[in-house]
Design a protein that fits this description.
Elements: H1 2-31, H2 45-72, H3 75-107, H4 115-137, H5 141-154, H6 157-167, H7 188-235
Helix pairs in contact: 1-7, 2-3, 2-5, 2-7, 3-4, 3-7, 4-5, 4-6
Length: 236
C-alpha cells in the first residue's frame, strides 16, 4: 500500500502540478483583464499572494509537526517539520522577491519598513535560523528538539503578519479582504484566476514537500545503515 502511494505521489502529483501551473500561467498572462489602476504589474499579485499563503501553510505545518515531534519523539514528525521548513523558506524568499518587484512601480520604492514587510522579513530570518540550527546540529536528537521549539515559536509571527495591515497604519494593501470588510476581487475572471493560481501553488507545495520528505527519509535510512556498519565493525 505504501509503495503504491509512493508511486502515485512520484507520478501523479508532478503531472497535476504541471497541468495546474500551465493553466495558471495561461490565465495570468492571457485570460485575465489588466487592472485599470495598477496596469500590467498587478498580474504579479496572482503569484505573490499564493506564494505568501503557501509560506504560512508551510511554516504552520512546521509548528504542528514540531509539536508532535516533541510529544511523541517520532522521526516522522521531525522529518516532516524539517521538509516543510525547507519548502517554506523557498516560498518565503520568493514572496520577498516578488513583493519589491510589485512595489517599485506602485510605491516608487523597492522596500519600506512597512509592518507587513518587516514582519515577513522577521519570519524569513526565524526559519533561516531554524534551518541553520538543523544543519549545524547534525543528526543529533538534541538539535532537532531545539529546532522544534524554534519552529513552534516562529509560527507566532504568522497571524501577526496576517493582521498587520488591519492593526497598524501601513501602505501594504489588503486585497482579498479590504480594511472596510469587502473583497478586493470583484471581477469574476480575476477571482477564477486567483483560485487556479492557489490550486497550482498548493499542488506545487505538496509535491515539493513530498520530494523533500522522501529525500530526508532516504538520508535517515542511510545514516541508520552507517551506524549499523560502525557498530558491526566495532564488535569484530
Amino acid at each position: 500500500m505504501t509503495r503504491v502511494l509512493r508511486k502515485l505521489a512520484d507520478t501523479v502529483l508532478p503531472f497535476l502540478t504541471f497541468v495546474a501551473m500551465t493553466a495558471a500561467i495561461f490565465m495570468v498572462f492571457v485570460q485575465v483583464p489588466t487592472d485599470k489602476v495598477q496596469g500590467i504589474v498587478q498580474r504579479i499579485f496572482y503569484f505573490h499572494v499564493p506564494l505568501a499563503m503557501m509560506t504560512f501553510a508551510a511554516f504552520g505545518l512546521v509548528a504542528i509537526a514540531s509539536g508532535f515531534f516533541l510529544w511523541r519523539g517520532s522521526r516522522f514528525w521531525d522529518r516532516l517539520a524539517h521538509s516543510s521548513a525547507e519548502v517554506g523558506m523557498l516560498f518565503c524568499t520568493l514572496v520577498l522577491i516578488t513583493g519589491p518587484i510589485w512595489a517599485r512601480p506602485i510605491w516608487g520604492t523597492w522596500w519600506t519598513w512597512d509592518a507587513r514587510l518587516t514582519t515577513t522579513l522577521i519570519l524569513w530570518l526565524i526559519y533561516a535560523a531554524y534551518l541553520m540550527l538543523r544543519t549545524m546540529s547534525g543528526t543529533g536528537d538534541q538539535g532537532a528538539r531545539y529546532a522544534a521549539v524554534l519552529g513552534i515559536v516562529g509560527a507566532i509571527d504568522i497571524p501577526i503578519i496576517n493582521r498587520s495591515v488591519y492593526w497598524w497604519r501601513t501602505i501594504h494593501p489588503a486585497v482579498l479582504i479590504t480594511r472596510e470588510g469587502g473583497s478586493g476581487l470583484n471581477d469574476p475572471s480575476m477571482r477564477l484566476t486567483f483560485e487556479i493560481c492557489m490550486l497550482a501553488f498548493l499542488l506545487l507545495f505538496g509535491w515539493l514537500l513530498w520530494v523533500c520528505n522522501e529525500s530526508g527519509r532516504l538520508r535517515d535510512a542511510a545514516e541508520d545503515l552507517r551506524q549499523q556498519v560502525i557498530e558491526h565493525e566495532s564488535q569484530r
